[in-house]
Give the backbone structure.
Amino acid sequence: MNAPEKLAPRGRRSPSRGPGETVTPPLKAERIQESLLAFPGWQVRSDGPGLVRRYEFPTVRDSGAFAAFAASLLAELDAVPEVEIVGSTAAVRVRSGRAVGEVTAIDLERVAVLEGRSKEPR
């Protein structure tokens, strides 16, 4: 019998940090860029830690439905949902670091789940 597939470890929580923030070390720029090749559309945020992607939808209703789905899924992953809707565009941000441009393995794990390339939480 095969063991079930598991998500990468989330890192230790620090009592001084809020939900979704971890003590996981940031990745090097080369590793981030290499990893993002598997996730077209995702970029390192220029205004804070983590990654961002904008999704375009045919209608405002579609973007709202996706935003609700993404926020719920991120919450299940112990992340602070950061979703912004502007018209038919939904922007999703994932972050576990603190510094501008900082990306961790946890951020990439969350992107993989959002993109349907990793097992969703139970």
Confidence is low (pLDDT under 50) at residues 1-17. The longest helix spans residues 60-76. The radius of gyration is 14 Å. DSSP finds three helices and four strands in the chain.
